[in-house]
Amino acid sequence: MTPVEIEITSSDSLSAYGTARSTIQGAPLSAEELRKIDAYWRACKYLALGMIYLQDNPLLKEPLKPEHIKNRLLGHWGSSPGLAFIYIHLNRLIKKFDLDMIFMAGPGHGAPGILGPGYLEGTYSEIYPEKSEDARGLREFFKQFSFPGGIGSHCTPETPGSIHEGGELGYVLSHACGAAFDNPDLIVAAVVGDGESETGPLATSWHISKFLNPIRDGAVLPILHLNGYKINNPTLLARISHQELEDLLKGYGWTPHFVEGSDPESMHQAMAATVEHCVEEIRREQQECRRTGVAHRPRWPMIVLRSPKGWGAPEHVGGHRLEGFWRAHQVPLTDVKKNPEQLQMLEKWMRDQRPNQLFDQAGKLLPELKALAPAGNRRMSANPHANGGILKEALRLPAFTDYAVKVDRPGVVETENVPPLGNFLRDVMKLNMTNFRVFGPDETTSNKLQAVYEAAKKFWIAEYFPEDQDGGELATDGRVIEMLSEHTMEGMLEGYLLTGRNGFFSSYEAFIHVIDSMFNQHAKWLSICNHLSWRRDIASLNLLITSTVWRQDHNGFTHQDPGFLDVVLNKSAAVTRIYLPPDANSLLSVANHCLRSENYINVIVSDKQLHLQYLNMDAAIEHCTKGIGIWDWASNDHGCEPDLVMASAGDIPTQEALAATVLLREEFPDLKIRFINVVDLFKLQPNTEHPHGLTDVDYDSLFTCDRPIIFNFHGYPWLIHRLTYGRKNKTLHVRGYKEKGNINTPMELAMNNETDRFSLAIDAIDRVPKLQRIGGHAKEKFRNRQIACRAHAYQHGIDSPDITGWRWPAA
Ligand SMILES: Cc1ncc(C[n+]2csc(CCOP(=O)(O)OP(=O)(O)O)c2C)c(N)n1
Ligand SMILES: [Mg+2]
Fold this sequence. Notes:
Blueprint: E1 7-8, E2 21-22, H1 31-53, H2 80-97, E3 100-105, H3 112-120, H4 123-127, H5 135-144, H6 172-180, E4 186-193, H7 200-205, E5 219-226, H8 242-251, E6 255-260, H9 264-292, E7 301-306, E8 316-317, E9 320-321, H10 340-351, H11 367-370, E10 414-416, H12 419-431, E11 436-440, E12 458-459, E13 474-475, E14 480-482, H13 486-498, E15 502-508, H14 516-529, E16 541-546, H15 564-569, E17 576-579, H16 584-596, E18 601-605, E19 610-612, H17 617-626, E20 628-630, E21 644-649, H18 651-667, E22 673-678, H19 696-703, E23 709-713, H20 718-724, E24 732-735, H21 746-752, H22 757-767, H23 769-774, H24 776-796, H25 801-804
Parallel strand pairs: 1-2, 3-4, 4-5, 5-7, 6-7, 11-14, 11-15, 12-13, 15-16, 16-18, 17-18, 21-22, 21-23, 23-24
Antiparallel strand pairs: 2-6, 8-9, 10-19, 20-22
Bound molecules: thiamine diphosphate (TPP) and magnesium ion (MG).
């Protein structure tokens, strides 16, 4: 092949076809380099087809027959050739400049385009020896793809070099940004699907351009894969003018460089020149800032690769357009096993890649092509950043007990629960200034964690105004990341954790739902990693859910939604943990535990307002270590069977449940009540279902087999029934949030949902047999108290002093 001329981008064509048109000019590849890089790409395409179609005859040593074809054809061709094209051009630059680079495929369904290079560079066979670099291994490698007992069709955790599955679209840029944080020499190449770019999370994540510090962080190189189509539709960005697309991307702070066309030779030259230019630009910007010590916001380079969807597929099949159209998205020829004409088409297509010129007799890639890939840890499939546990350093944690709130007697002192945690996190930050970050959607102060700013400010590299000096807490070297996108925050945190670092995320309870499905995906990722011995453990994802349902005094109904816990409960017990610490010291103890843990998603629910404190630090440690326990000081059933078990989980429900026991004991001095508090919600599940679960014996000795249980719960009541449905004691009555809210005082909201002390006391009267006969007067009294409470709230706008001033009585 001879080097080819590159056309200047003079046309406004939106076609993905023709000789390359590119913003960056140049033909850096010698004829020999061009020949080899194209051969390597053909090898990748050959492997992608092999994965989708073949269960035998991997090197086409014999004519292709129906029995060589898989019985069920699965996988996606459409994105694969483009992804492999990008991958191998990055390889060239890694080798040329000895780059530390990882790759993320936004359209993870293009996995055949990523698995191929991983196999060709040897990593696959190193991790999975049976997928060896010979005909036999190749056959296994093909067969396992999208096959029962094999691997999935996306860049799943089994994929060496992947930390981004790309099954659910939208998170590639935020993941990439998190990976680049505090990794100054790393470049994260992030391929964005043009369909993916229509998703909400991806759209907002173009703003990562304002979160990368050129001195301290690495870089993200976005490559918008403008192949024009999604599953069945054109993509919006492929059908707007060049100018409009360029303006859009520039508006997000990027400098887009177009590479457009389909002719392989000129596209190789254009891509090689463009990638090289981008890497040089990244290095130039970083060096400039590092030399001067002044971090400014570069207009980082990015690439727009416009190429045909399913690049290289037959132009037409069955009278329909295939290559360069949405029909190329999944399996391009669907009937190869039964249709001889299609079988022939596939054989020709595969032989056109000239496998005999790519692999030796044994089936191994020829040495001259092997030499194109980087070696050792420079291979993107073997880069340690993509197996972050290898690089993970344990956090240096101060003694959490130093931040304790003084509690002499339970239920007397009031403190805000979250600020002591803020102090703890401040010092965690101080001790871990290169591998710990705090994330939040504009809520760190609102969530009362602002002490952390004493150690590190909020990162801000956009414009500054003079008034920012006054409490803005902004800095170009900040380590608290805030942007009003739960998606972007969650994605950045995941990227940070997956590359071996540590973090903490706080969010309003109602809006953590925004990332429900991101939580799902991360939980699935972790679950699979648990079964892959070569994947090293990473830090847990720690979510503080605060500004909770029960204290939305001025925000009202829309801000009341404790349902995230229901979502968490659906996911594997191996990776999910839920904690509801009732006060400040127990929150500290739980947070300390979570920051030390690995491979979990820890969900901590704690309101931020003033609350009664129950446990001194020793008691908190004891209680949190057990995760569930009888509060001796709140119980009077010592030495006998209780008449009633009063249980609670969550700060405000605990206060109301305690107040209810006081009401009951005042009215019925002989009534024996056992008070149980649950911090670790999964204690309620049987140990056969969750590793934290209580055995039946332990559960029964706490809750008894037959005494009525009244359980006041922070969230939706059914969740407690879900957790306990198999337990012996069926007299469980759960109160929780049931969507009855507005602008309410805390007491009024509790009454609306029957989680208030009076409703709980009435529940007890209705369920304890001996009270059913004698409790009529007490019930009347409690109802009157409720009426009075409501009247007070309506008249004064606040709860009455006997409610707000309630304290656990002295013994
Ligand atoms: C959030 C989300 N919604 C829907 C899908 C289903 N889906 C899978 S692939 C795809 C089209 C993707 O198109 P694009 O991002 O352009 O990728 P490519 O063209 O490279 O295949 C869709 C809609 C998904 N995976 N994730
Ligand atoms: Mg597309």
